[in-house]
Amino acid sequence: MKALRLPIVILLCCSGLASRSQDPQFSQFYAASQYLNPALTGNTFQDRIALNYRLQWPGVQPGFETYAFAYDHNFATSHSGLGGFVMRDRAGSYGLSFTTVAMSYSYEARINRRQAIRFGVRAGYTMRNVAPDGYLFADQIIRDNAPMSVEANMVPQISYLDLASGALYYSEQFWVGASFNHLNRPNQSLMVDGNAQLQMRTSAHAGYRFPLDGHKLIRSETKMTVASHYKAQGKWDQLDVGGYIEHNRISGGLWYRGLPIFKAYQQGYSNSESVILMAGFETEKQLRFTYSYDITISKLTLKSAGAHEISMIYEWPRKAKARRHKVVPCPKF
Hints:
Layout: H1 2-15, H2 33-36, E1 46-56, E2 64-75, E3 80-91, E4 97-112, E5 115-129, H3 138-142, E6 157-171, E7 174-181, E8 201-211, E9 222-233, E10 236-247, E11 250-258, E12 272-282, E13 287-296, E14 307-317
Antiparallel strand pairs: 1-2, 1-14, 2-3, 3-4, 4-5, 5-6, 6-7, 7-8, 8-9, 9-10, 10-11, 11-12, 12-13, 13-14
């Protein structure tokens, strides 16, 4: 029964008649800055390499895995940033997956020494594929469990261009931004002559950072950040809200994901998903490591085994002469 149920779900996603698929998401959303908002590309006067890994619902074997690798660089003299990332997502069994290669560009307009606005664009190329081996199609059941399907309408792989844009306002303590993904609504159908346009995903995020030890923020050794991230795609929407405390090189936080005070998009279905625990540290070499665990509070309960997520970010400074302006801290774990 399980082998039959999975292909039916996949075929519904490919048919184009009622496509409601959502993009992968990270609990540590600021640790995947280019994916969150292209305006965050090169948002410091440093080079940066980021690695992200997420395993969601391992209790529902084999779960959902997402990998991402990103690099970006800030060109201080031209007030711009350039970067790129590679992301691969595997959803469940039998090879339903996609790989995206994207390039991002951002431009910063300074309001004054303490405030700035950033704008960003991103262009990506996505390859989406499925491995039909192991599926059980309806025509096989009709033909007395025939060993092979005669279904000829399924395409094992497609590719498409994917465009995004974003903007961000920030100061030393506060930031707010928005991004708009899949602007060109690419067709992701895996059926011949199918039409399954990828719905546009809108993201809005904001945060505020303040000291807890009575010192100014720039000299504080203990500070707290509260942040939120709202995303919507088609009829689906969700909110991440929470915060984390940083003391010297150690950090820890707590987040909630869901929209309990709003009507769920499906009658009788709870919109609360998880409570997220986060812990991290930074080495003297500017290598940040963060681990988070999603505790499922939806109807899936703990049988889903939640979600594990790891991020590693390494930054290294450029030459001092490139720092023509005072660095305004941007949102980052």
